[in-house]
Amino acid sequence: MQRQGDSRGSRVNERKLLHEQTLGMSRKTSLLACGLISADITFRVGEMPRRAEKYRADDVRFSLGGGGAIAAVAMQRLGAEVQLAGRLGDDLFGDLLRTEIDRRSLGYGLLSCIPNGKSPISSVFVDDSGERQIVNYRQPDTVLPPKSATDTDTEPRESIETTAFDATRLQSIDTPDAVLVDTRWEAAAIQVLAFARQAGIPGVIDGEAPVSHTAMALASHIAFSRQGLRNYAGVDEVEAGLRQAQTEFACWVAVTDGEQGVYWLEGHGAESRLAHMPAFAITSVDTLGAGDVWHAAFTLQLARGACEEVAIRFANAAAALKCQSNDGLDGIPSTEQVMRFLQADDEVQRVSH
To answer: What pLDDT digit, counting tens, does each position of 97-129 carry?
Structure first.
């Protein structure tokens, strides 16, 4: 049986919680985001390219991208202090990305530089409807070391593994209030989630394809994309996929489904039931990074003590506001903007009823 989320009682509790957050916390919420960092080159086009020929863009933007980096920026814009863990190459794009991370005052003590490595790059097309198409380059698992002056072309060079993560580096940072990982750097995601479990804090994983069973087994919360859930469960039916995940990993599970909203299992085992919260009805101009903003906002609210249903509605609102903006990362809302959006929606609902 499916339950529609967002009851009147939860709305009252939500307003109380968010009001208390706004009146002032004794310190900023501290979060850790671990995942893909890439250089995004975004082209605005009237229509999505479909043939092998030249196209002219209406606008272009170079920006910090990748799920981990976008989530980190969203957390910061929503009012948190953020540590970012990820991998970069020692190339031109890596230098540009490190400069941008520093400019945005994100904590970079957990960044790794891959000698002779290439930084991830994404070519992004966004059309007039706000939909996007992405071609992404990510680092391979191994790279050749830099060539020394004594190396010859005939001498083989041993490859360097790029996937390792030194977990002792986590001891050098203050324990955050929650962590969020994607699986683009699986070894780091596993270590970060193990760190969160040991610290007794929420460990959220963005369940994108390809999913990591090892990482998900350590998470307190799994929020799949629809494609990620399908990749994990091998079925297209939402409830069946979520029940399979809850049975295997014994944690809270949900799936985000774009304009269809969010589905999650309320309760555990045979007593659990499928719940649903619809997305806000908006006109999108740019959906790039909306899912990353959603995961960041959801993790932030868990860190601040919200229940999952309140965190989902807050995250839905944050993602909706991002989709309505054409300003890239600078279009990610603040907590105050999200709260005004939710209060306006509450008023519309009150009047309509």
So the answer is: 999 999 999 998 999 988 888 999 999 998 988
Number of Cβ atoms within 10 Å of the Cβ of 98: 17
- CB of 240 closer than 8 Å to CB of 212: no
Give the pLDDT confidence of 143-168 residue by residue, as tens digits: 666 666 555 555 555 666 677 788 99
Closest Cα to residue 178, out of 336, 15, 16, 308?
308
Joined together, the tokens standing for residue 283 give 């006109």
Backbone angles phi, psi at 5, to 5 degrees: -70, 175
Residue 69 near residue 120, CB atoms below 8 Å: no
* pLDDT tens column, 227-257: 999 999 999 999 999 999 999 999 999 999 9
- Residue 338 has a pLDDT of 97
The dotted CATH code for 8-37+67-86+178-352 is 3.40.1190.20
Distance CA 272, CA 34 (A): 30
**Alpha-helix residue ranges (DSSP H) falling in the chain:** 8-23, 67-77, 92-103, 186-199, 213-216, 226-233, 238-249, 290-303, 308-323, 335-352
- Spatial distance between the Cα atoms of 155 and 255, rounded to a whole number of angstroms: 50
Structure tokens at 55: 């196209």
- Residue 123 amino acid letter: S
Query: Which residue, among 344, 306, 319, 286, has the nearest Cα to 21 in the 3D structure?
Result: 306
Of 24 and 164, the one with more pLDDT: 164
Nearest to 126 by CA among 60, 209, 208: 60
Evaluate if residue 26 carries a pLDDT over 70: no
Query: In a 10 Å sphere around its CB, with 0-12 CB exposed, 13-18 middle and 19+ buried, how is residue 7 labelled?
Result: exposed
